[in-house]
From TrEMBL:
<dbReference type="GO" id="GO:0016810">
    <property type="term" value="F:hydrolase activity, acting on carbon-nitrogen (but not peptide) bonds"/>
</dbReference>
<keyword id="KW-0378">Hydrolase</keyword>
<feature type="domain" description="Amidohydrolase 3">
    <location>
        <begin position="43"/>
        <end position="529"/>
    </location>
</feature>
<dbReference type="InterPro" id="IPR032466">
    <property type="entry name" value="Metal_Hydrolase"/>
</dbReference>
<protein>
    <submittedName>
        <fullName>Amidohydrolase family protein</fullName>
    </submittedName>
</protein>
<dbReference type="InterPro" id="IPR033932">
    <property type="entry name" value="YtcJ-like"/>
</dbReference>
<dbReference type="InterPro" id="IPR013108">
    <property type="entry name" value="Amidohydro_3"/>
</dbReference>
<dbReference type="Pfam" id="PF07969">
    <property type="entry name" value="Amidohydro_3"/>
</dbReference>
<dbReference type="InterPro" id="IPR011059">
    <property type="entry name" value="Metal-dep_hydrolase_composite"/>
</dbReference>
């Protein structure tokens, strides 16, 4: 098949903006690129002069969690406690004692009919003896019922989770509210969904990816199903059923080095290996929490909470051992590190496995707070940094509460990283950040919210170019899969993953980037979405 009369947008390539081309697609690959008009004997589809670009690869998301929001109880739109109770009761036909009740996406900080954040006692108003679990919108906090807390008390390994992540009442007892890795523990141990449940949830999510031009994802899902084996089964069965319009790298969240050893003992696949569409991703390691809860590990106290500077989950020795073990067993690591103290810990561990960091392309996720010394060390090391620019839409005005004024210029320092040739990817952290890559690109390029505030952009020296944004959403994520010679570009021999766009990204004003629409999405030579 020949796609004739198309304009190609590919950053840092020689395709001329005012010329059209003909692309030959054979099976799953791009076989050749010719000047247009095409004069051969192949079947021709007229591209009508539209813009064709590489499709997007989202290097950091929680796809199963997003699918469960679409399939199960979605609380993202509730605005009060009374409304939340009503939504829960309407969702479940009949609430019985000792049932499990799940809900995701609430934000009780915005409720105006209660004067406190929800606790286990409040959940008794729904059903006294039910097992309940409600996850906060940002995924870093949850509230569970008193009945569910009784289960937790029997979990010996839960005692190892930091006490700072277990909220207590005035008597020193758990109040049902948990944070960060304590949340992950609860998800991992109590959400034992089947592979069939996961498949149904993923089917709900996948059309939304295709609509926004995403054909590859790196996703951390294990805590929402409880088993890496069941997770692998769900994705590969969808692939076999030809119902998976993406390539998926599946991360393995680990709590400690024993989780790593168990995986290595029981599984033969290592990072980048698997089926044509489903491959093993990284060992995912959480080093700290989040700034909203003052649990991200900072080298300075929080300006609005001087008694807090966050919490490191591991000692340096523990982390060093985990990174070394992963490296020795050909597994990439992806470390969640938001605060500068956590980033420093990650960098120290990677420096001790320097050659493996280069070979395996280890990652640091977020790295939202940096400093000159950390950027200098990252320049020497060059791990991959996974960024989520759409967080700035809501957070730019909050940064001063979390970060000393002297370090604000080093928050979300995308341009500084790129100038030092430190590779970054753009991603969503779905369902927390924006799914639409053009919202993310808009934020990276402008550093404003969708209304253009603040004027000129927040820390405008860290704005990056449209070209840099596209590379960080296409070519660079392919490097993390070790597939940069076959994915992420419009070139002969590359996988036929591409988009038709309604506008050329470099022919519009930067503030209009958010308005670009995907007209068609192609994955492995097949059209999987058409507007």
């Amino acid at each position: 098949m020949i796609l004739d009369n198309v304009r190609i947008y590919q950053p840092n390539q020689t395709y001329e903006r005012d010329r059209t081309y003909a692309i030959k697609v054979e099976g799953e690959k791009i076989e050749a690129i010719y000047d247009s008009p095409y004069n051969g004997e192949e079947d021709v589809v007229d591209g009508r002069g539209r813009v064709l670009s590489p499709s997007f690869s989202d290097s950091h998301m929680h796809l199963l969690r997003y699918g469960l929001l679409k399939k199960e109880l979605d609380l993202t739109q509730v605005t009060s406690w009374e409304e939340m109770k009503a939504v829960v009761e309407n969702h479940y036909d009949e609430l019985q004692q000792y049932d499990w009740i799940f809900g995701k996406g609430f934000n009780d900080g915005n409720f105006d009919d209660i004067d406190h954040l929800l606790t286990a006692k409040d959940l008794n108003e729904i059903q006294v003896n039910a097992y309940m679990y409600f996850m906060h919108q940002d995924g870093h906090e949850c509230v569970i019922s008193e009945q569910a807390m009784e289960l937790l008390k029997e979990e010996e390994d839960f005692k190892k989770e930091p006490d700072e992540f277990k909220e207590k009442d005035e008597h020193g007892n758990w109040n049902g509210r948990f944070k960060d890795t304590a949340v992950h523990y609860i998800k991992h141990h109590f959400w034992g969904r089947s592979a069939e449940d996961a498949k149904e949830a993923l089917k709900k999510a996948l059309p939304h990816l295709s609509e926004h031009g995403i054909t590859s994802v790196h996703t951390d899902d294990i805590n929402f199903i409880g088993s890496y084996e069941r997770l692998w089964q769900a994705y590969t069965e969808l692939e076999q059923e030809e119902a998976l319009p993406i390539d998926a790298q599946l991360h393995h969240y680990v709590f400690n080095i024993n989780d790593m050893k168990k995986y290595i003992t029981e599984n033969d696949f290592r990072t980048g290996q698997g089926t044509p569409q489903v491959t093993v991703g990284s060992f995912k390691i959480f080093l700290d929490g989040t700034q909203r809860l003052y649990t991200a590990a900072m080298r300075n106290p929080y300006p609005v909470e001087p008694s807090a500077d966050g919490r490191l989950i591991y000692t340096q020795e523990q982390l060093d051992d985990m990174v070394k073990f992963a490296s020795d067993n050909d597994m990439q690591v992806a470390m969640h590190a938001i605060g500068d103290r956590a980033v420093e810990q990650a960098v120290t561990a990677l420096e001790k496995s320097k050659e493996a960091t280069k070979r395996l392309r280890h990652r640091i996720i977020h790295a939202q707070t940096l400093a000159p010394d950390l950027i200098a060390r990252l320049r020497e090391l060059k791990p991959y940094i996974e960024t989520q620019p759409s967080f700035l839409l809501d957070e730019w005005s909050e940064k001063g509460k979390w970060t000393p004024e002297s370090l604000l210029p080093y928050c979300d320092a995308y341009e500084s990283l790129l100038k030092e040739h430190i590779p970054i990817t753009l991603s969503s952290d779905l369902p927390i950040g924006a799914l639409n890559p053009f919202t993310t690109i808009f934020t990276a390029v402008n550093r404003t919210d969708l209304n253009g505030n603040p004027e000129g952009g927040w820390m405008p020296q860290e704005r990056i170019s449209v070209k840099g944004s596209f590379l960080s959403f296409t070519k660079t994520p392919a490097e993390l899969e070790y597939r940069e010679e076959e994915k992420g570009k419009i070139e002969p021999g590359y996988q036929a993953d591409f988009l038709f766009l309604d506008k050329h990204p470099e022919e519009i004003e930067p503030e209009k980037l958010k308005d670009i629409k995907v007209l068609e999405t192609w994955h492995r030579g097949k059209c999987v979405y058409r507007k």
